[in-house]
Design a protein that fits this description.
mainly alpha, two-stranded antiparallel ribbon, 6% strand, 3 helices, 128 residues
């Protein structure tokens, strides 16, 4: 039995950068959401990419109710597949972020140790 589905889409994609404020810094992050969404969705269903979604209403204006239900069921499966792929993508980004953070911390610690050693050597030379 076909399940009634509701498919809602946003045909206005914001290109506004997101600003995040913490107690230490304000960081403006470019809005990569539409690019990331399209990159993940295109191999799954190009029809659901941001450049195509605004045209769906016109494209399917004459489809039957039965065809519409089948299409929306297909879209639901596509979005489920998208969610899995997006989670993997974000997991990979998080891993890369953590690696970069560890490398930056290690580099900062090395620089601090060199600076401390130079200061210590300078102090020792003053007492010699």
């Amino acid at each position: 039995m076909a399940q009634n589905s509701v498919f809602v889409y946003n045909n206005e994609i914001s290109q506004t950068p997101m600003t995040t404020t913490s107690s230490q810094a304000t960081v403006t992050v470019p809005n990569v959401g539409p690019v990331m969404y399209d990159q993940i969705m295109r191999p799954i269903n190009p029809e659901l990419c941001s450049d195509q979604v605004p045209h769906l209403k016109e494209q399917y204006k004459d489809e039957s109710k039965g065809d519409r239900i089948k299409r929306l069921e297909r879209y639901n499966k596509d979005f489920a597949q998208f969610d899995v792929a997006a989670a993997e993508y974000l997991k990979g980004l998080n891993t890369q972020k953590n690696v970069q953070r560890k490398q930056a911390m290690a580099s900062a610690e090395i620089e601090e140790k060199i600076r401390e050693a130079a200061q210590l050597q300078q102090l020792e030379s003053q007492f010699s």
